[in-house]
Design goal:
The chain is an alpha+beta fold and 152 residues long. The chain has two helices and eight strands.
C-alpha cells in the first residue's frame, strides 16, 4: 500500500465467558467464513456502537448470557492484518460475571457451544487469530499484532 494511503480498520469484539476453568466457544456453521472452526462469542461492531456494548450484545446473541457493563472487563486488543484492505481491530472482553445459562443461542450460525481450557484448545480447530490472542491473554498480555507483513 502506498505511503499516505488511507487504511480503514474494521472493529470486532469478543467475549470470554469462563466456567470451571474453561471458555465458551461456538462452532461456526453456515456463515461462509471459517465454518468448522470454534470461535469465542464475537462479531462486528455495529455503526455508532462502542466496543463494550457490542461485546455484551454478542454474548447475548451467541451464548444467551446477560453481561452488565461493569462486569465486562477489557483483557486484550489485537491489531490484525489480512490484506492491505482487510485490517481489523479486535477487542476482547471477559465476562467476570453474567446471568443465564450459556447455550448455543444462534443455531442457524453455530453447530454447538463447547467448553475448552486455554491450555487444552483443540489443535487447528480454533480460529487462528483468536488462538493467538488467547495465548497472549494467558501470558497476561493486553496487546498484540497478528499476521502483519514485515514491511508494514
Amino acid at each position: 500500500m502506498p505511503k499516505g494511503a488511507l487504511t480503514v480498520a474494521y472493529p470486532a469484539v469478543y467475549m470470554l465467558i469462563r466456567q470451571d476453568g474453561k471458555l465458551a466457544f461456538v462452532l461456526r456453521s453456515n456463515t461462509g467464513f471459517m465454518d468448522g472452526y470454534y470461535s469465542l462469542p464475537a462479531g462486528r461492531v455495529e455503526p455508532a456502537e462502542a466496543f463494550r456494548p457490542a461485546a455484551i450484545r454478542e454474548a447475548a446473541e451467541e451464548a444467551g448470557v446477560t453481561v452488565l457493563p461493569e462486569h465486562a472487563k477489557h483483557v486484550f486488543t489485537h491489531h490484525r492484518y489480512a490484506t492491505p484492505k482487510d485490517i481489523w481491530v479486535d477487542v476482547y472482553f471477559e465476562a467476570v460475571q453474567w446471568s443465564g445459562t450459556p447455550v448455543n443461542a444462534a443455531p442457524e450460525e453455530h453447530g454447538e457451544l463447547a467448553w475448552f481450557a486455554i491450555a487444552d484448545l483443540p489443535e487447528g480447530k480454533i480460529m487462528p487469530y483468536q488462538y493467538a490472542a488467547l495465548q497472549g491473554i494467558a501470558k497476561g498480555e493486553t496487546y498484540g499484532e497478528f499476521n502483519w507483513p514485515k514491511e508494514a
